[in-house]
Design brief:
Helix content is 18%, strand content 38%. It has one helix at 92-112; strands at 2-6, 16-25, 28-39, 43-46, 49-51, 63-65, 72-75, 79-83. The radius of gyration is 21 Å and the shape is elongated.
Length: 120
């Protein structure tokens, strides 16, 4: 297995990675599947300041803004795992287990702050 960053920008930040799965065929190591794991292309507006409404209970009066005065966005609302086609049929069960464990690690990270947290 080989993991490499994709969509890397000048600052060295990335929004995803490519996982190449290898197997031996005809005495040679060959790529049998590639998984692309990345954030989607949706732009999400972010705020660094939220002001309470001027009248108590007025939900419409909540003000969201940035101290810079500019609209700021981040890329990605959902984490997406996809695969390039075609994929070797023999690795289907391995990919299924791998994707399940990857999603469990992501869920554990967001729930507990570590991908190594175990449920008891």
């Amino acid at each position: 297995m080989e993991i490499s960053a994709i969509n890397e920008n000048q600052a060295g930040e990335t929004n995803g990675y490519l996982i190449s799965v290898f197997d031996f065929k005809d005495g040679e190591e060959q790529v049998v599947a590639e998984l692309i794991c990345q954030m989607d292309q949706t732009l999400i507006q972010t705020y660094d300041t939220i002001l309470p409404p001027s009248k108590p209970g007025d939900i419409e009066g909540i003000k969201k803004m940035n101290r810079s005065g500019k609209d700021e966005f981040i890329e990605g609302e959902f984490f997406v795992i996809s695969r390039k086609l075609p994929t070797d049929e023999t690795v289907g069960s391995v990919l299924k287990v791998m994707i399940k464990r990857m999603m469990s690690a992501i869920n554990a990270y967001y729930a507990f702050g570590s991908p190594f947290s175990e449920e008891f």
